[in-house]
Amino acid sequence: MPPGWVSSEVALFVNPTAGRGRGAHAARPAASALRAAGFSVRTVVGTGAEDAPARLTTAMRLPAGRF
């Protein structure tokens, strides 16, 4: 990425069990706010900290525009 360049595509990582279920409830308004700000949002739902690295790696390997 060139210096100063910002992607309009983001991945929102969600742990639905975080905060006794608050993670799942916070995801939709967070994604909506990002979309309203002009971002293309891909929501990635995990099962906990254990699977986050694998899900992050998978999301980062997707080509631009695949969100």
For the biggest β-sheet, the strand order reads 1-2
Number of strands: 2
- The Rg value, from CA coordinates, equals 13 Å
Q: Give the biggest sheet.
A: 2 strands, parallel
Q: What is the percent of helical residues?
A: 25-40%
User: Helix count?
Assistant: 2
Distance between the termini: 17 Å
Principal-axis shape equals flat
Strand residue percentage: 15-25%
Instruction: Tell me the structural class.
Output: alpha+beta
Q: Ranges with pLDDT <50 over ≥5 residues?
A: none
* Average predicted local confidence, pLDDT: 82
Give the SSE order as H and E letters.
EHEH
Question: Which key phrases capture this entry?
Answer:
flat; two-stranded parallel sheet; 18% strand; 67 residues; 2 strands; single chain; 2 helices; alpha+beta
